[in-house]
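quick one before i forget lol
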Amino acid sequence: MTEPAFGAPWQARAFAMVRALQDAGVVTAGQWADELSAAIRRARDAGDPDDGSTYYDHWLAALERLVVARELTTDGALSDCRTAWADAARRTPHGAPIELA
């Protein structure tokens, strides 16, 4: 039996967002590869175990850097979204889907 490609739904969504940006011509495959490689290097330099368990964390970091660099959003908007998500997660009962208001 093979392992699933994604360990969590958010990973599949992040993957799909990158593909959508590529399909729309916002970023090339080469630009994406460069940004993902840089995110992995930054994490490794910061002590990431580089054992594959945090791969999609790097994917998300690279995606966030790209959308800010392409002025599709801002660091502030991303920060606000993280805060809203964390607040929603805290008030959501265990096992229930997290919903943003």
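fyi The helical segments are 9-23, 29-45, 55-69, 75-91.
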